[in-house]
Write a structure and sequence with these properties.
This protein is an alpha/beta fold and 260 residues long. The protein is built from ten helices and ten strands. The chain has two domains: 170 residues, Rossmann fold; 73 residues, no CATH class. The strands form two sheets. The chain has a six-stranded mixed beta sheet, with helices on both faces. Helix 3 packs across helix 5, helix 3 packs parallel to helix 6 and helix 5 packs across helix 6. The model has no long low-confidence stretch (mean pLDDT 89).
Amino acid sequence: MSLLRVENLSRSFGGVKAVADVSFAVEAGTVHSLIGPNGAGKTTLFNLVTGVYAPSSGRIFLGDTDVTGLPTAARAALGVQRTFQNLQIFFNMSAVENVMAGRHLHVSTGLVASLLGLPGIGRETAAARRRAEELLDHVGLAEWRKADADAMPYGALKRLEIARALAAEPKLLLLDEPAAGLNPAETHEIDRLIRRIAASGITVVLVEHDMKLVMNVSDHILVLDYGRKLAEGTAAEVRANPDVIKAYLGEAAATGGRGV
């Protein structure tokens, strides 16, 4: 059964259709990528799936549950988490505290009380810290666990945001351009991390412009163009699709290069 199913989804802003009658399904435990030129509707689609935007028409299902009308917090409670194209980091907190913040769905005494260390919550706070440290190690940031976020390099902050999303124990993780601004070595780390996340059973939906990364990690790819579905299929099928090559990939990506 599909973990995520989108049916005839549309969203208009004024007279502009940012997403137009898009349907697709994401199977559990896979990496599903959304690609397309700037302005193709990828981030708008993310915002629709996570509840930031309400659709103009269409429906969104998480498993058998119709989540179309649910707010973002309710979808998060059902297992939907995301990262952002522009970092959403608490720069006045340490790396481990940032990840602990992601545990708020699983901390009965509340996030603020936990992080402030109020009386009576020491055991729960300690457990949250241990889990946060495990996740920092999982994303390759063990050496930064005690560091202040504002002292960390950009590439490490990208993985820190992923660790915080993982702290909520998602079923579905949406990653919005996790390799944007990274050098080749850092991008390779993101590649390996996405593979580890998927191998752990978490379903990943990825928006990314680095075509080498997309082709390496994706089980399935959906191509958007001007808000509409242009094509979908495996990496090999998308790479060979003449419409996709013409609209987006270009010859470099079609032969395995970085692309546009």
